[in-house]
Automatic annotation (TrEMBL):
Domain of life: Bacteria
Species in which this protein is naturally found: Sphingomonas tagetis
Protein name as catalogued: TerL
Family matches, as InterPro entries: P-loop_NTPase
Length: 512
């Protein structure tokens, strides 16, 4: 594109929201043909306007675009790039796959801004992300078709941003990583990181960084409507019947239809979800669920070598999962850390003291097997929890010999019922492990038979997601057995509640 350029056309409000979202990490998810690539190109151009002019009046940016293979790079992203920036000998170095052009961008007020854009196109192939991105000094990084890339591309790429332009040319005023992708399978890393916005930070770390970095801190996720929805985007630039034709072609491929036409998340690749009734749009709260001080704080515990505890409240027949206490092994996203009962009880106590210091403790539901089992050091789980959580009642969360079927049916009932028009179970978005368990981690394993067919096991696979999911089941079934007395407060707490002040029932100072 020589001479001057506009900021390209409007394709829809969700795409526009992505282009104008200047948080450090932003992603756009949409069906085929929804102008995701074009929106990323627009954002690269717009990012130049975020920079200060250099001494010569030019605003500079340098980007790297990463794709899985060079074949995909050439047939997809480069083809789109050259639609907007026609290839010339002056602006394209084919040996290095690098683009450079200086031009004017026409602003809404009719004035022109001089910008310089450098873009380095890289493909991963079978190389390590560290090797591909080493030494780059960038303004921004575009992960094209992000779900086809390994998360290491982001992890090694993010530190390369914010290094251009240099101070003598105005310094880097904005840096960022932009991502575009079709709806991924729910076990893909993009689902956890970009869709659920699980940044791995504690609330305290998040608040500190927000105070230091301001409104540009955080992850911005933008979900476009499905292609057959009445508000589908970029329809005016597509052939008539485009999505209807795709739906016909994908009729025998339901996962393709969900992901590429309806913009819905795909199924897990290695098992069948135990709770297909779980719908993140319905059962995950839009914002973090805060403690309601009018009601006690319940919790559910699953012991063993990789334990989990889920604090929740049971209000008007709705189970509200507020939080989760699980410890992941450092550097491993799918392996819980082993902890004994004493260490885990103390960790939970400290978590409650920090996050729920004024809560009235209710009931802690537990695996009935804990009553009879001990860990390798012969230390009784409940003994340590009862010692620290003195204000809580302790009840087993199972019945009928702790059979799993009643527990599963209890959770399914909450997922499918809507008391008072609200879901019977809702999860706070900070419960990342529980959400992953519902969507992809807690599954029935498929067994391949000798005749080439297969079937699913009758019980969920035992893995690290099964521990928090079992805890949820103990809490759900436990609530059924004592629902009529679950929210009874002590006389002292009831008086405090009437005054609008609920104190912790004998727990805040326990064990200290």
């Amino acid at each position: 594109m020589s001479g001057e350029a506009s900021l390209m056309g409007f394709v829809g409000p969700r795409a526009e929201g992505f282009v104008n979202d200047w948080r450090f990490i932003t992603g756009i998810m949409g069906p085929y043909g929804s102008a995701k690539t074009t929106s990323c190109i627009r954002k690269i151009v717009a990012s130049a306007l975020m920079q200060n002019p250099g001494p010569d009046g030019v605003r500079r940016v340098r980007w790297c675009v990463v794709r899985d293979t060079y074949a995909q790079l050439e047939t997809n992203v480069l083809k789109s790039w050259f639609t907007w920036f026609p290839q010339t000998k002056a602006n394209w170095n084919g040996n290095r796959n690098e683009f450079f052009e200086e031009f004017d961008v026409m602003l809404p007020d009719g004035k022109a801004a001089r910008v310089s854009i450098e873009v380095i196109f890289r493909a991963m192939g079978d190389r390590k992300a560290e090797d591909v991105l080493k030494g780059l000094e960038l303004t921004g990084l575009w992960l094209n078709e992000t779900d086809t890339l390994d998360m290491n591309v982001f992890l090694f790429g993010w530190p390369r941003t914010g290094r251009f332009p240099s101070a003598k040319n105005g310094g880097c005023q904005w840096r960022g990583v932009i991502c575009d992708f079709n709806a991924p399978d729910i076990d893909n890393w993009t689902y956890d990181f970009l869709v659920l916005e699980n940044d791995g930070l504690s609330d305290e770390q998040r608040e500190h960084l927000r105070g230091v970095l301001g409104p540009r801190f955080g992850i911005g996720f933008h979900e476009q409507p499905g292609g057959l929805e009445p508000d589908a985007e970029n329809i005016h630039n597509l052939p008539p019947g485009y999505y209807e034709g795709l739906a016909m072609a994908f009729a025998s491929k339901p996962n393709h239809l969900r992901r590429f036409v309806h913009n819905k998340f795909g199924a897990v690749s290695d098992g069948q979800p135990v709770f297909p009734e779980f719908n993140p749009d319905i059962h995950v709260a839009k914002e973090r669920i805060r403690l309601d001080p009018r009601y006690p704080l319940q919790s559910c515990l699953d012991g063993g070598r990789t334990p989990a505890l889920i604090p929740f409240q049971f209000i008007e027949n709705q189970m509200r999962l507020l939080d989760e206490i699980v410890i992941w092994n450092p550097g491993k996203s799918d392996e819980l850390q082993r902890l004994g009962p004493k260490a885990f009880a103390e960790l939970c106590w400290e978590h409650f003291a920090q996050h729920y210091p004024t809560a009235q403790l209710g009931t802690m539901f537990y695996d009935p097997a804990i009553d009879f089992g001990q860990d390798d050091e012969e230390e009784d789980w409940l003994r340590f929890f009862r010692k620290l959580f003195k204000g809580a009642k302790f009840r087993p969360g199972g019945r009928d010999g702790n059979r799993i079927e009643p527990r599963l049916e209890s959770v399914r009932g909450r997922l499918t019922n809507a008391p008072g028009g609200r879901p019977g179970l809702i999860v706070s978005p900070n419960c990342h492990t529980v959400i992953r368990g519902f969507t992809s981690g807690y599954v029935y394993e498929r067994i391949k038979l000798s005749n080439g067919s297969g079937r699913f096991r009758e019980k969920p696979i035992k893995n690290d997601f099964s521990h928090p999911m079992d805890a949820v089941q103990y809490g759900s079934l436990g609530c059924e057995t004592v629902a009529d007395i679950l929210n009874d407060l002590t006389g002292r707490a009831r008086a405090q509640q009437a005054r609008g002040k609920v104190k912790h029932g004998g727990y805040a100072g326990a064990g200290r």
